[in-house]
Write a structure and sequence with these properties.
Blueprint (H helix, E strand, L loop, with lengths): L1 H9 L5 H9 L3 H10 L12 E4 L1 H4 L12 H21 L7 E5 L7 H13 L4 E5 L11 E3 L12 E5 L1 E3 L13 E5 L2 E2 L1 H10 L5 E5 L2 E2 L3 E4 L5 E5 L8 E5 L5 E5 L7 E6 L5 E5 L17 E5 L5 H12 L5 E5 L7 E4 L5 E5 L10 E5 L5 E5 L7 E5 L5 E7 L9 H4 L6 E7 L3 H8 L7 E9 L7 H9 L5 E9 L1 H8 L17 E6 L4 H13 L5 E5 L2 E6 L2 E5 L8 H8 L8 E4 L1
Parallel strand pairs: 1-2, 2-3, 3-5, 4-6, 5-7, 7-9, 8-10, 9-12, 11-13, 12-14, 13-15, 14-16, 16-17, 17-18, 18-20, 19-21, 20-22, 21-23, 22-24, 24-25, 25-26, 26-27, 27-28, 28-29, 29-32
Antiparallel strand pairs: 30-31
Length: 582
């Protein structure tokens, strides 16, 4: 309250636009208080068009209490929240409301406040409503029943998110004709409700069922639906679902249980993307309904990939271009044959047996391949992919893991290579890395114990062997970095007089970049890469781990000194190049 009084005393001469901006940063509780301090400001807080009702907004920000641990106190706290919400809406002088969001465990006992909130919001043009009544307590709350007679008429609502409430069977969805996005979270779902919803929400494009209880088998029939997201969570169910949506473009499905919703029939001839995360898939998915899919992701499957997925996938889904297997079990040899396959990712897929196994890939149009494994037994990978130009390869930390890289080393037309390797493997791998004469981008992540007799001049050899190289990224994770810095700070810089490159433009050095050997590398690049535009040095570990994921560790270098690096390199920078030290 003192802050609001201070605002009154200091803002009499402020322009209206500045006062409006200040008001937009106040909590709803303090926003209401301004009307008691100045008649001039009574209408000002009505310009707040996005109304967010939660503990921080309806109670003092610095004194937000934890939810009470006894039922009487909790119920009293609920009533206090609902009363404040209702009071705000009764006094709200605004002409237009853009969005309403309630994030607090309200229930059926607070219908009076919720109904008035939504009625006034819709009358003032709200296009987004979120009722998030998540109950994270041990108390049983009678769910709010969603049955609003004022939805019978047309309204501007395009986004509706309901959590932990109940949709009445008598609900009339005719007022939701403009709805584009619907999210049902922890809501009981019946077929008759779903049928009425799909029939009346004629413009529905995005539909999410998140941890809902399915009381019956379901059929989703929609002529306009574009994106469907079903997350069963830990809800155990044996229900079936049919999906009939001629314009549907993507399906995302996930479950944390063995018994979950079965997708028995998919009729969506425009479906192009399918994402599936669950421990089992046998008799769950109708692969014949995926015949036009171009992008597919499988995550966490514990059944045999070859038997239950691959044998059906590439024989029925003939348009596949992009396939990802992430954290799926491999129980036998795999054979992947895809005539149109362009991008393939096999990431963190464990192998349970104790003998070697094979992954045979025959894909004439394959242009991108990613592999990362974390099992003791690594596969023997055979690649028949003459158009392959981009590879991410996690070699693994052990010396014995490098044998498989010979498969990649034979791909002389490779243009984009990202590799994660251990320091003991450098002596062998650097012999293969100089084979790639067509490289335009090289990203290396090196981890392992520091060795004082090792430098990074071998990277200069790779660059010289790749005259088309334009981007070079190196991330270094040293063990015992303080030792490497103390040892190297005492020696002189070494020279490598043979290096010159006329194509390299961008260089990034991440992680342990304070050591003298990294500064030596940066110095040679600055002096002898004639077209270099930018070189960046950062203490963060920034490296790729597959399937579109990056590791962004802010604690990369314990001795990172911006001034030390700048002093070493400032005289090497020419007028055409920018040195950035983060």
């Amino acid at each position: 309250m003192n802050g609001v009084k201070k605002l009154k005393s200091e803002s009499t001469e402020l322009p209206d636009c500045v006062i409006s901006h200040i008001f937009s940063m106040l909590s709803l509780k303090n926003l209401v208080k301004t009307s008691a301090l100045s008649k001039q400001w009574y209408r000002e807080w009505g310009f707040r068009k996005d109304l967010n009702f939660d503990l921080q907004n309806l109670f003092d920000f610095n004194t937000v209490p934890d939810l009470p641990i006894t039922l009487p106190l909790f119920q009293r706290f609920q009533c206090q929240f609902a009363t404040r919400l209702d009071y705000f809406m009764q006094k709200y002088p605004g002409v237009i409301i853009r969005s309403i969001r309630v994030n607090f465990p309200l229930g059926a006992d607070h219908t009076y406040a919720i109904d008035r909130l939504i009625r006034k919001g819709l009358l003032k043009g709200a296009n987004r409503i979120e009722l998030l009544f998540a109950n994270e307590t041990d108390f049983q709350i009678n769910q709010f029943r969603f049955v609003f007679p004022f939805l019978f008429g047309s309204n501007s609502l395009t986004y509706l998110h309901l959590q932990n409430c109940c949709i009445e069977a008598t609900m009339d969805f005719s007022g939701l004709k403009n709805l584009r996005t619907l999210v049902l979270h922890q809501v009981p779902v019946k077929q008759n409700i779903l049928q009425d919803l799909c029939l009346n929400c004629i413009h529905l494009e995005n539909f999410t069922l998140n941890e809902c209880t399915f009381i019956s088998d379901l059929r989703i029939t929609s002529s306009m639906l574009l994106h469907l997201n079903i997350n069963c969570g830990r809800i155990i169910t044996n229900r079936n679902i049919d999906i009939i949506a001629p314009k549907l473009l993507s399906i995302e499905y996930s479950s944390d249980c063995f018994y979950h919703l079965r997708i028995v029939n998919i009729k969506a001839h425009m479906l192009s993307k399918f994402s599936y995360r669950s421990i089992n898939i046998f008799n769950i998915v109708d692969f014949s309904g995926l015949k036009n899919v171009t992008t597919i992701v499988f995550d966490g499957i514990r059944e045999c990939l070859q038997c239950h997925v691959i044998s059906h996938l590439f024989s029925k889904c003939l348009q596949l271009e992009d396939v990802t297997f992430k954290e799926c079990n491999i129980k036998c040899d795999m054979k992947i044959i895809g005539a149109k396959l362009c991008r393939l990712r096999i990431i963190d897929c464990p192998y349970k047996n104790h003998c070697s196994y094979k992954i045979d890939i025959d894909a004439l149009n394959l242009s991108s391949f990613e592999y990362m494994g974390h099992t003791f037994m690594r596969p023997i990978i055979s690649l028949k992919a003459p158009k392959l130009s981009k590879v991410f390869w996690d070699v693994g930390p052990r010396m014995e893991d490098i044998y498989n890289f010979d498969t990649i080393a034979r791909l002389h037309l490779l243009q984009d290579l990202t590799m994660n390797m251990g320091r003991p493997q450098i002596s062998e791998l650097k012999k293969d890395l100089v084979r790639f004469q067509h490289l335009t981008q090289l990203k290396l992540f090196i981890v392992g114990a520091y060795k004082p007799d090792m430098d990074y001049f071998w990277i200069l050899d790779i660059a010289m062997a790749s005259p088309r190289l334009k981007t070079l990224s190196l991330t270094i994770q040293n063990e015992h970095t303080e030792i490497s810095h103390m040892v190297e700070s005492q020696r002189q810089r070494r020279e490598y007089v043979r290096f010159i490159h006329n194509g390299l433009k961008y260089v990034e050095l991440h992680g342990c970049v304070c050591s003298i050997d990294v500064i030596e590398l940066a110095s040679h690049l600055l002096r002898s890469a004639t077209l270099l535009k930018q070189i960046t040095l950062s203490s963060c570990h920034n490296y790729y781990i597959g399937a579109g994921r990056w590791n962004m560790d802010s604690h990369g270098c314990c001795w990172f000194e911006r001034n030390v690096i700048h002093e070493h390199l400032k005289d090497e920078v020419n007028e055409h190049c920018q040195l950035i030290i983060l």
